[in-house]
């Protein structure tokens, strides 16, 4: 039995690490693509990609770890079934239930990490991400410009285009700016420029060796001016601080004078490690391989169960935040249903027959 446990430990750790890296790579690619798309549209500055991506990964880390340990247990035991190693286990007089403690001992540290991330680290990352986005909103017009894209000012009176910045963002090259003022449209171009801060705190963009073209509606004449130095005042953004969201509150704040939304958020944070534990236990009977079925059937079933479980939890969380469910009930009915499903799977694998038909025959068969 010690040989089985040692082999299980090594293979489970190896598969969990590989699956975690694969899922992490998929999530990074998906989130990075979404953030880059926002940068290309001018919604976010290009220097914010790394920070926002890091906070997003920290927020998703509990779910990534939950899915990783669930699939690792499932795939490891599935291979043991397929290679007839489980037959040796059962031939030694050991049952399927005796896999519980070895697997639980292996995944308990991961469950504790998921609990820590869900209760403390995830709200901290959400709070920092929201604070960082607020900071981006208050940045001036030039700081929010991405090289190679057109950017409109907040008041709609200016449009900027900059080909490139230096590393510190103070020197710009090949600038295009369009301004609207006093019913006049001005177009300014310059080969290079720089920014500086005046004594009163105002920021200016200084253009060197450029041209300015000015037009008026219904007037065919175009005024052209060449300049050695031209200053444009950069507008700063003022925005009122937004209230902290429920997702960004600490767990301690959720428990002190909680609202319906606070109850829902706290139970969602608890649901992540609880669901991870239930899914790991469910993976043991779910790993049984039917030789007539395809090899990918177990993986498809596991992904479907994971998606359905989390979606139902999200629905109950929304109902709880809306006051449609009592906080004492909360998300526990969802956990209870999947616990019953796990018990049913254990019974079915232990007796090699479905539970429902057996009960039907017992209570409804003719005398």
Break the fold down into its secondary structure elements and pairings.
Blueprint: H1 2-40, H2 49-82, H3 85-91, H4 100-137, E1 150-152, E2 158-165, E3 171-181, E4 184-197, E5 203-215, E6 223-234, H5 251-255, H6 260-286, H7 297-321, H8 332-351, H9 355-364
Antiparallel strand pairs: 1-2, 2-3, 3-4, 4-5, 5-6
Helix pairs in contact: 1-2, 2-4, 2-6, 2-7, 4-6, 6-7, 6-8
Quaternary assembly: single chain
Radius of gyration over C-alpha positions, nearest whole angstrom: 30 Å
Number of helices: 9
Helix vs. strand class: alpha+beta
Beta strands, count = 6
How would the global form be characterised?
elongated
Overall number of domains? 2
Distance between the termini: 46 Å
Mean pLDDT: 78
What composes the largest sheet? 6 strands, antiparallel
The main sheet orders its strands as: 1-2-3-4-5-6
As a percent range, the share of helical residues equals 55-70%
Pfam family, one: LptF_LptG
Protein name: Lipopolysaccharide export system permease protein LptF
Membrane topology: Multi-pass membrane protein
Keywords: Cell inner membrane, Cell membrane, Membrane, Transmembrane, Transmembrane helix, Transport
């Amino acid at each position: 039995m010690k040989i089985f446990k040692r082999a299980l430990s090594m293979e489970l750790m190896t598969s969990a690490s590989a699956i975690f890296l694969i899922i992490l790579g998929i999530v990074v690619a998906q989130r990075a693509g979404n953030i880059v798309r926002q940068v290309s549209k001018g919604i976010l500055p290009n220097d914010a990609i790394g920070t926002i991506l890091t906070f997003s990964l920290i927020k998703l880390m509990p779910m990534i770890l939950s899915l990783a340990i669930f699939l690792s247990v499932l795939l490891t035991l599935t291979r043991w079934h397929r290679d007839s190693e489980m037959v040796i286990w059962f031939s030694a007089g050991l049952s399927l239930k005796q896999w519980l403690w070895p697997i639980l001992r292996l995944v308990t540290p991961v469950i504790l990490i998921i609990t820590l991330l869900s209760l403390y680290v995830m709200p901290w990352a959400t709070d920092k991400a929201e604070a960082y986005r607020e900071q981006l909103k208050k940045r001036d017009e030039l700081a929010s410009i991405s090289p190679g894209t057109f950017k409109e000012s907040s008041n709609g009176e200016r449009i900027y285009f900059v080909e490139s910045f230096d590393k510190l963002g103070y020197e710009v090259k090949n600038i295009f700016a369009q301004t609207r003022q006093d019913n006049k449209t001005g177009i300014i171009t310059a080969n290079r420029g720089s920014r500086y801060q005046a004594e009163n705190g105002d920021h200016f963009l200084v253009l060197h060796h450029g041209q300015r073209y000015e037009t008026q509606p219904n007037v065919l004449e175009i005024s052209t001016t060449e300049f050695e130095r031209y200053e444009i005042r950069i507008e700063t953004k003022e925005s009122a601080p937004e209230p902290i969201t429920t997702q960004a509150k600490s767990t301690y704040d959720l428990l002190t004078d909680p609202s319906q939304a606070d109850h829902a958020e706290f139970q969602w944070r608890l649901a992540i490690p609880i669901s991870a534990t239930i899914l790991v236990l469910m993976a043991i009977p779910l790993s049984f391989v039917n030789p007539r079925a395809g090899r990918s059937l177990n993986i498809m079933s596991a992904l479907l169960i994971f998606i359905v479980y989390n979606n139902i939890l999200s629905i109950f969380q929304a109902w709880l935040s809306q006051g449609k469910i009592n906080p004492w009930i909360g998300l526990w009915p969802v956990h209870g249903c999947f616990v019953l499903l796990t018990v049913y799977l254990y019974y079915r694998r232990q007796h090699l027959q479905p539970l429902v038909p057996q009960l039907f025959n017992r209570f409804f068969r003719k005398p």
